[in-house]
Amino acid sequence: MVYMLAGIALFFGAHIYSALRTRAPEKRIEAKLGEGPYKGLYTLVSIAGFVLIVWGYGAMRPAAIIWQPPVWTVHLNILIQLIAMPILVAAYVPAGYIRKTLKHPMLAAVKVWALGHLLANGELNSILLFGSFLVYAVFDRIMLKKRGDNGLPPDARVSVVGDVLAVLIGLIIWGAMIFGLHEVLFGQPVIAGMG
User: Fold this and answer.
1) Are 117 and 103 members of one domain?
2) Contact call for residues 100 and 151 (beta carbons, < 8 A)
3) Based on the domain organization, do 54 and 82 belong to the same domain?
4) What is the pLDDT of residue 194?
5) 78 and 162, same domain (yes or no)
6) Quick check: 160 and 96 in contact, CB under 8 A?
7) For position 1, what pLDDT does the model report?
8) Where does a domain end: 12, 35, 60?
């Protein structure tokens, strides 16, 4: 558990710092360190944290069961991920109506993804992992709103092409996860018996 908690502290510590840091150009740490060194340090800390989270999650298996989710929540999570994947992809394809409506689709997708996994997993390591992502995504969205960052400008041009790409790529990722990619990446099949 120590590795996972250390990873959570490093990974989200860097991200929380980024959300809370001053936006005054003369006071920013990037101005003191330089843009390149700051981004390099931020990336290294984030990667180290992520590696510790992954390692710690696996090291905690088998984890203490905090609650036993009903079987139907596993199926519900599969449907929830069907929503989460296109939303996540919408953050990285040309701007469409999904991105314009959700303002910060990556954070929206993380919240949906984490909530679905919390419903379907009752082990301590899963609760720590998905709970920390959910809490951070909610926190970061609040901070963005406080800074007046409402996503795309109101006059931004959007296209349904971005939405079509988001849905198609999201469905491909979702299908790949169901049919083996989840087990390859995370050691657990989405549906028991399919691995």
Assistant:
1) yes
2) yes
3) no
4) 47
5) yes
6) yes
7) 87
8) 60
